[in-house]
Design brief:
heterodimer, A: alpha/beta, four-stranded mixed beta sheet, three-stranded mixed beta sheet, 2 helices, 9 strands, globular, B: Nucleotidyltransferase, domain 5, Substrate Binding Domain Of DNAk, Chain A, domain 1, 3 domains, 11 helices
Amino acid sequence: MAITVTETAAQHIKSQLQQRGKGEGIRVGVKTTGCSGLAYVLEFVDQQKPEDQIFLNYGVQVFVDPKSLLYIDGTQMDFTKEGVNEGFKFTNPNVKGECGCGESFTI
Amino acid sequence: MALLTISEPDQANAQPTADHYAVGIDLGTTHSLVACVIDGAAQVLAEEFGQCLLPSVVHYLANGQCEVGAIAQQALIDDSANTVSSVKRLIGRGYEDIQGLADILPYQLIPGESGMVWLDTCAGKKSPVEVSAEILKILKRRAEKIIPGTFSGAVITVPAYFDEAQRQATKDAAQLAGIPVLRLLNEPTAAAVSYGLDHEEEGIYAVYDLGGGTFDISILRLTKGVFEVLATGGNAALGGDDFDRAIVQGLLEEKNITLLNTEHYCHLLITARQVKEQLTEKNVAAFIENNTSHELTREQFNQWIAPLVDRSIVACKKTLRDADIELSEIKQVILVGGATRTPLVKTKITQWFGRAPLTDLDPDRVVALGAAWQAHALMGNASSDHPVLLDVTPLSLGVETMGGLVEKIIPRNSPIPTAKTQTFTTFRDGQTAMALHIVQGESERVEINRSLARFELTGISPLLAGAARIRVTFQVDADGLLLVSAMEVTTGIAASIQVKPSYGLTEQQIAAMLKNTAQ
């Protein structure tokens, strides 16, 4: 079971953590929302939770709670630019369908 | 896939501000209710004298004012021409559609703008939307008095069979009453929510709704947080009021009571209702008529109403067949509507479905309570007990194709928001325009479905028949509003339309009405 982060993504996470001034790493999870069922949650981590699993990639700690891990195991997180937008992109092998707006997905 | 940015911890799970409350409203044919989740418990909000059920009756007065509820009910006999009851049967309907009803309703129906039905009262011409808004205003006022915070909107329930026009008209009525609509929820779904079936096992549920004047049976399937309506059926002229009439009929025939006049009949109906309510608890009911005391046994009463209850079972059979469901597949049966308190109804349901129905909650209130839970969840209080349900399209949406047939683009029960695209082509050589006719309904034939809108795509480059490629996209947003766009792929020319059902009110009409009410 693992979550991976590309080198580009790791660099961006590091620089964002630096700008913020504090934080142990980032949290990746899912919540039930949107039109298609589930959506990703991406936030900074200040305090680790006891049940968290931690994955280390290019010096970045990725915290995942075990419930979310079921849905996103094997996911690769990348940082991309699409036109004027830039941000993190998830490639999740578990996804069966996505909604039109791309906000949420189903397993 | 949308691109994400990293957010601050716990922002995603931020708690909603506690002083905003949203309510659930059951806008019924005979009665309406409002409920709200306060301090983690759903409760029906009562008026000052403790009455929860607001009779859905509006009495218009010559000075332009109106009375709503129990006061208006009195006028049903004295001033029937200006007293509007059962307005739900008219909302969002065309004048032509309801000719059958015009003869039974005591008030005057007239054709209004864009073919929809209006009412002629002594306070002027009223649309069913305005009449419903009067009822909603009372419920809103009631809620504002009781809830300990700001009133910020409502989930309003509608029958599962309501089409786009009837739903839009219901929303218009809420807007007119100053109520922001969070969502329209199907009545059977609301009932299922109040029993917490949304976090039960996935499966098939039946909702048996026997109200004052209408009977509805709905077959729902729960899958992954979505209640699909597999089939609905029922009888628009069967309800508890028919039980009352059956009692009066029986009394006249077998208890040596002679009918004097209409007023006497109305009086007997009231007696019959009391007798019926007594017989729910007791085996024998006593009543006094014309200074003589009489008795009626439950057995006798059951005999009189048995044919009526059997009619509801026949409708259940038919609906189950429509849904292509075996009786054994049904997990639970939920009872809704005051008339389901009648012991014989429960017995017959238990016999036919082969299982005892769910009856823990007050059948008059389940729909409003379910709507309240959903409103609570939509305000950002979703918990694992009452998650936000996904909304679905009630009927299929499609376009007319050659020969008066319908090509369905978005099938019924699709979770919304949704978008679907289909490619069409031209029919004749050199065709430069295409008319798109958007319809809603389940039939393959255009004339049986409801027409929603028409628009044209012009400027297609003249090509051989079948060479042009026109992509038609149907988009339904979270509020159920439909946007249809068409684009010719080679040239990129496009046209689109925001569908506003032709029977609904225009924005200007609503604005004008809002202005009038403000004055």
